[in-house]
Amino acid sequence: MSxxxxxxxxxxxxxxxxxxxxxxxxxxxxxxxxxxxxxxxDGELEQGSRLVQRLRxxxxxxxxxxxxxxxxxxxxxxxxxxxxxxxxxxxxxxLHPNTGGxxxxxxxxxxxxxxxxxxxxxxxxxxxxxxxxxxxxERLKQLLESN
Length: 147
Fold this sequence. Notes:
Blueprint: E1 2-10, H1 14-21, H2 27-30, E2 34-39, E3 50-57, E4 60-72, E5 76-82, E6 88-98, E7 101-111, H3 115-145
């Protein structure tokens, strides 16, 4: 299992940040690795919601099917996903009010099969993932602070 964690401060209240991160129709505007949203519910995500995303990482396209495990307005979203060849991930968005804005904490635990080779690939993906996560969170910040 590999873990990726990132933090960013957004000058918008948690309720507004939650509105954007819980709306599947907004994902394309800020998630840099999303190639397409193949399936999603209309409206806000809630516990049990199912999404199917086509993602692109390091030039490779793959599909992940996500289930929302927790949706606690306006403070937390937890997703669990299954991808190709037995890959799995757990993504957590935590929103904390801070000085008129929101401290956004992102955590992604992911598992790649393949023993030592999978672990080596996981470490390489973790480095690339940090860069993409930072780009994604910066896009989210710009989206929310520009309105």
